[in-house]
Specification:
Length: 429
């Protein structure tokens, strides 16, 4: 009975807004159109228009894929304290985190599509139809877990939002079991991707037992950091009640994961350079270059510098609780993890080749435009999801079949927001 008005309300929320909203969505649409044009050129002329080659067969596309898979997993793990442990602070961020997971998965699958060259041959990857080679192929596991995780992250919040729209509480026995499954799924999507790389003995740069734990540590850094930025924007522009405790706990998750990620990175560097062998030549190319070939050196040291600097800032309690420091630190940490996890992980695995040949990789304008278009698509999807969820969670829209719609959620007092926005250290006399 409530389904049709629910869908119409969602459509109305996604297509209505002020001037800033329409400018934002129009800008994202323009970037997507540019990306679509670049992708058309790639489809017409083949992958030869990219910087990839027989030597470096994975480039900017797969670099973004590995990063975004982790973001999706990390966003879901923030849902556990809210749904299962009933944490009040995380409850205010739960739906936004699931929106981040959905957007990240849409982008990750988009990068897979543009990387395979001919998307019309993608039916070979479908279970029961193509030649998936399941369960032997780790790539087949990746296809299954990514699509399954996307379905779960769309179904669970949709069910909860629908019930809130209908003026009733969602039944725990209908969504909580799926939440447990989704939690295990969140870990699997990232570990499967890590195992896909670590299980290639011909690529010694990836052939490490620490790759899986490093994946998890990096995603629990970048994912919550992005959620913090999103929640801060929502708090500044809407009346949605996001507690100070949510920011404090999310920041604590970020700084703890960032420290673990740096320790694991240091362990990898010690292993590669303390007793150097010919198997560490990929790491030497990445960090110091080989002869005249040093295209990735500025990238990796920039990423490490951003990670270290942001982590140091977040380790200081007074700075971590101050949004003037917290937001820039989260933004730079997000960028640093993107460099380290994407460009600094995928591309060096191919340089030099197993035969010792050095062919450097530089993305072309086609790859850059396609990448920008897919990121714009993800932000477009995230904006629509947040736009639909907020009025329902605030109680501003309810089903017309309700006789007395519940009152809107109380607006947080201005004093609470002031305490969050202006945190000053106490002076000792």
């Amino acid at each position: 009975m409530h389904l049709k008005p629910f869908l119409l309300t969602a459509l109305d929320s996604a297509t209505s807004g002020d001037r800033r909203y329409h400018v934002w969505m129009g800008s994202l649409t323009a970037i997507m159109l540019v990306g679509a044009y670049a992708y058309f050129i790639q489809l017409r002329d083949g992958l030869g228009v990219t910087g990839m080659s027989d030597h470096v067969s994975w480039g900017l596309y797969i670099s973004n894929f590995t990063f975004l898979v982790g973001m999706a997993a990390a966003a879901m793990m923030l849902v556990l304290p809210a749904y299962i442990l009933h944490d009040v602070d995380f409850g205010s961020a739960v739906l936004m985190a699931e929106g981040v997971a959905v957007a990240a998965l849409v982008m990750a699958l988009g990068f897979v599509v543009v990387d395979i060259g001919n998307p019309f041959a993608g039916w070979h990857l479908m279970p029961g139809i193509g030649y998936l080679n399941w369960p032997r192929s780790l790539l087949s596991w990746d296809v299954i877990v990514l699509n399954g995780y996307l379905v779960l992250n769309l179904a669970i919040p949709s069910y909860i939002l629908y019930n809130h729209y209908a003026g009733r509480s969602p039944a725990k026995n209908k969504y909580l079991p799926w939440m447990y499954i989704s939690a295990m799924w969140a870990v699997s999507i990232h570990l499967v991707t890590a195992f896909l790389l670590a299980g290639l003995p011909s690529r010694p740069f990836w052939n490490s037992a620490l790759l899986g734990p490093r994946f998890l540590a990096s995603v629990f850094t970048a994912g919550p950091a992005f959620v913090i930025l999103l929640l801060h924007f929502i708090r500044r522009t809407t009346h949605y009640d996001i507690t100070d405790g949510a920011f404090a706990k999310l920041a604590l998750v970020v700084v703890a994961a960032a420290q673990i990620n740096l320790v694991m990175l240091l362990s990898e560097l010690f292993y590669e350079f303390y007793s150097p062998t010919h198997h560490g030549i990929n790491a030497r190319y990445l960090f110091f270059g080989l002869g005249e070939h040093h295209a990735l050196v500025p990238w990796i040291w920039t990423g490490i510098g951003l990670n270290v600097g942001s982590t140091v800032v977040l380790m200081i309690h007074s700075l971590r609780r101050n949004p003037r420091w917290l937001m820039p630190a989260c933004a730079t940490l997000f960028l640093g993890i993107w460099i380290e996890k994407g460009i600094g992980l995928v591309i060096p695995g191919f340089i030099p080749s197993p035969l010792g040949e050095i062919v450097e990789y530089t993305p072309t304008w086609v790859e850059l435009c396609v990448t920008a278009g897919i990121w714009a698509l993800g932000l477009f999807v995230l904006t629509v999801l947040v736009r639909v969820a907020l009025p329902i969670e605030l109680g501003e829209v309810r089903s017309p079949y309700l006789e007395q719609p519940p009152a809107a959620r109380a607006v947080r007092p201005r004093a609470t927001r002031a305490r969050y926005e202006e945190v000053r250290p106490v002076r000792k006399r």
